[in-house]
UniProtKB/TrEMBL annotation:
Coiled coil: none annotated. HAMAP family: TrhO. SMART domains: RHOD. This is tRNA uridine(34) hydroxylase. It comes from Marivirga arenosa.
Amino acid sequence: MENSENKYKVILYYCYAEIENPDEFRDQHHMMCLELDLRGRIIVSKEGLNGTVSGSIENVDEYMKRVKADPRFADTDFKEDFHPSHTFKKLNVRHKPEIVHSSLSHINPRKKTGAYVEPEKFREMIKNEEDIVILDVRSNYEHELGKFKNAITLDIDNFRDFPDKINELEQYKNKKIVTYCTGGIKCEKASAFLLEQGFENVHQLHGGIIKYGLEAEGEDFEGKCYVFDNRLSVDVNKVNPKVVSECFVCGTKSDRMVNCANPTCNVHVPICEKCGWEMEGACSPECKEHPEKREYDGTGYYQKKTNGYDPYKGFQGKLEKSKL
């Protein structure tokens, strides 16, 4: 939520659209982000664009304007939030085979995907429709922190494992299914895969949990939503919030998401504030005594070593040419 202290904006977005020269596009996009002093993670692929970035409100607004000015990305749905500072320490724009690693590269959501359900409609559905299946397609560490009330979750460590769970979902084949994820991108392919496998009544929450929180107050989302920046998690529910996760160390109710201070473990788990300080950010006595344990500052977030990171490396000449 915007207030006088929140002078930065963080956005989450994706767009499936054909990019003929992803390497060239990646370079151009990287330079544009440098010009606007944006930080975050952006994936460029032949199948589209996926990113979450932070920057000043003015610069992020300019970035969204430029992205939408490209006809390929004109219908990009940006999920916007506000923050006192950057939510990332550096910028990474990478070219990858898919904009989300899915093991479903043959699926093109532009041609086939589940029907969109807008946030307010979804709120009505989960309140009034009894014979409906709400399917969480995220990984274990995400849905263990928070999920929709009565949602079906899957035991997966990565989204690429989703297709392996199709047999477990056969029991819902004749029901109305609505998939959801953080920002919507995983549902594009998950819902399309279900349709491909013979499921007929398949829908998806448009814009995911984040958009639902912004437009429908997050009602009946229990717990917090895991996010992929240094905030680690965000509040979603403004109506009937509930803590569902438990401290990994002592078992008390806690929704403080922490990365284990032992970098060789680095597990993402809830740890209450008391245990966080007592365990120095570690998830176990063994990790607490690990010789490489990182210093805990109370947040449970650790910036990866930059190893001489320079966002302008290899781009100085290109930037100068672009100004001519």
